[in-house]
Model the fold of this input.
Amino acid sequence: CILSAYQHAVEERYRFFSYGDAMLIRPGATPVESTRAV
Done:
């Protein structure tokens, strides 16, 4: 779960950097494979 991963990161004092990117995860959304290289 994203929220538990975020909670862990906060507890461990991970640093978060934002470059204007965003992510939206809709409940019940179907995962799709990316065709873009990361």
